[in-house]
Design brief:
The chain is of the alpha+beta class. The chain has a single domain (30-143), classed as Nuclear Transport Factor 2, Chain: A. The protein contains 5 helices and 4 strands. A 4-stranded antiparallel sheet has the order 1-2-3-4, with helices on one face. A hairpin with a 2-residue loop joins strand 1 (81-93) and strand 2 (96-105).
């Protein structure tokens, strides 16, 4: 009886740890996004947007830099970009994901999503958007 109880407790502990390990492993910020965030911190908004657009269908399009204007307006009110926090990654299919991120500025957060697509062996960003209102970016379950 004690051996059976020990085995059951051991199994329960293993099952409790496995999903946590998988979640931590899968919740890593994609390099295609962090590369742009590093460039943002070092060289500014326009350079970051150009980095995020590398390899995407919008690369080289004049209107593709429009989203940089949003971040310039944010900087005017919130100060300079400081850091980021990954909120979640939603797998849509094996080749596409939506990545939700909070960008931290001196005086407040900005919320973002990036749609990434597996092109060949690399991930590219197909679209992204930023907003100070989390309800404009995040799924309903995060803000209700």
């Amino acid at each position: 009886m004690i051996l059976r109880l020990f085995a059951l407790c051991t199994l329960a502990m293993v099952l409790a740890v496995l999903p946590v390990a998988d979640a931590e492993e899968n919740i890593k910020m994609p390099e295609v996004i962090t590369a742009g965030l590093s460039v943002y911190k070092e060289k500014g908004v326009e350079a970051a947007v150009l980095e995020w657009l590398k390899g995407s269908p919008a690369e080289g399009q004049k209107n593709a830099l429009a989203e940089s204007n949003v971040l310039l307006q944010v900087e005017a009110f919130y100060g300079s970009y400081q850091s980021y926090e990954l909120i979640n990654i939603k797998e849509i299919t094996a080749s596409s994901r939506v990545v939700y991120v909070q960008l931290n500025y001196e005086n407040g957060p900005v919320f973002a999503y990036f749609v990434i697509f597996k092109k060949g062996g690399d991930w590219i960003i197909t679209t992204f958007q930023f907003h100070t209102d989390p309800t404009a970016i995040l799924p309903r379950e995060y803000v209700s």
